[in-house]
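hiii, so i know i said id send this last week but things got crazy w the move. better late than never?? heres the sequnce for the chain we talked about at the cafe, plus the structure i predicted for it. fair warning i was half asleep when i ran it
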Amino acid sequence: MSYSTYGSTGTWQEKLADKCREANYHPPVFQIVSDRRGGRTAWSSTVTVQGQQISARFWYDGQYVDNAKEDAAEVALKHLTGGSPTSPVQQGRHAW
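okay and structure toks below
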């Protein structure tokens, strides 16, 4: 899969899984993490790829917890391909 393919449709999680399969890595393993902040809880994610744990860039409200996994997957994929993650503002994400 070439770098240009990553601009196509599909979630970052799917793209990361595809890249791991292509490189004969174990599938990525996601973990949701939380942090109590006053009366609310913020959510984020980490993903482990080839023994390296990579964190999402941002914390999210509970209703957007899947965005935390997408964020972590994007960071991990860009790490594997040597790119840099795009700004969440450009992606229209709902950060904490």
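btw The longest helix spans residues 65-81. thought thatd interest u
miss u guys!!
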